[in-house]
Amino acid sequence: MAEILVKEKPHFHILDGLRGVAALLVVIFHVGEGFATNATDQFLNHGYLAVDFFFVLSGFVVGYAYDDRWAGGGFTLGNFFRRRLIRLHPMVLLGAVLGALSFAIQGFVKWDGTEVAVWNVIVAMLLTMLMFPAWPGAMHEVRGNGELFPLNGPSWSLFFEYIANIAYALILHRLTTRRLATVVALTAVAYAAFDLSNLSGSWFMNLGWTFADWNLPGGLLRVGLCFGMGMLLQRIFKPWRIKGAFTLCSLILLVLFAVPYVTPVEGTTHWSNAIFEIVCVAVCFPIVVQMGASGTLKGRITETLCKFLGKISYPLYIVHYPVMYMLYSWLWSGERSTEAIVVAVAAAVTTSIVIAYLAMRFYDTPVRAWLSGKK
């Protein structure tokens, strides 16, 4: 999840708004986890593809912001990494603290009821702040379900975002457009082969959140393909003529994420869901980014909405899961009435948005401004 940092360049406000829309859909997707019986019957069942969309956006805006800075020789690796850390890491720190607080409120127990020592949680919080992942069974894997970052699950995508940024700084920005296209094409073939080989066991690519099984190579393929496609799209970008880009692109994302698990009907291939994912990632998301970057904002309401969604998008993505942990704990602890569930879900979503706004307004924005003023 990235933000355009070059002030003198035109700003893609619609892309900011779409990042916010995707973040909201992620929250709804994660609410659905509390009611799902398995990974294929979830509300907004393909909501996990929002991460792939974020990676495409990130490749586009990072390339837009930095590709032309390296040529003069005055822009260094240190400059780049400092800017990216200032953009991303303050919220990583806050997310770790909120995750530890959430775990404390739940009583310092794993999902199976096993008690966890307070010092283990402190270690997990510190390692999350350092983006040092956990592996299944590790001492700091405190929730017991194998997450890379058990105090704040979505931080796993930031782990891969950091890997993509390192690859960009060291290698990718140096590639010619033709060589970058070759890399993207080869990565697309590897991604498709991986998905169609059913290495996940469920014909999907909802991988990367754990080190178990094939998640690490799956996560690397997701960020590698999507970030690279975003970079390539930025280099060859020529705006289209399009009206209502924000509304249209938002509806496309909603429809794609809401498609149920694609179960093959009689006479069709068992690859159906994998093929749907591949089409979303390799075709639909680049088109949505192209449309969003081509569109213009008309009307104060739409402009204000896009700016607001853009500002809270990253904080919302980072802070909402500690709230979800508490929602899950409440949902799974006994029978609940429909009325109580509706109230709890509405409260969880609202609380996530409010915390995200407060974090953006009173923590992330001023901290980044302060750090940016340092030499």
Task: Give me some keywords for this one.
11 helices; 0% strand; disordered N terminus; 375 residues; mainly alpha
In percent, how helical is the residue content? 55-70%
Measured distance between first and last alpha carbons: 25 Å
How would you sum up the global shape?
globular
The helix-strand sequence is HHHHHHHHHHH
* Number of helices, where a helix is a run of at least 4 consecutive DSSP H or I residues: 11
How confident overall, as mean pLDDT?
94
> What's the β-strand tally?
0
What integer value in Å does the Rg equal?
A: 20 Å
Q: Can you walk me through this structure?
A:
The chain is mostly helical. It has one domain (13-372). 64% of the residues lie in helices and 0% in strands. It contains 11 helices and no strands. The chain has helices spanning 13-33, 50-66, 77-105, 118-129, 155-170, 177-196, 215-236, 245-258, 272-294, 300-331, 338-372. The longest helix is centred in the C-terminal third of the chain and has 35 residues, at 338-372. 45% of the residues are buried.
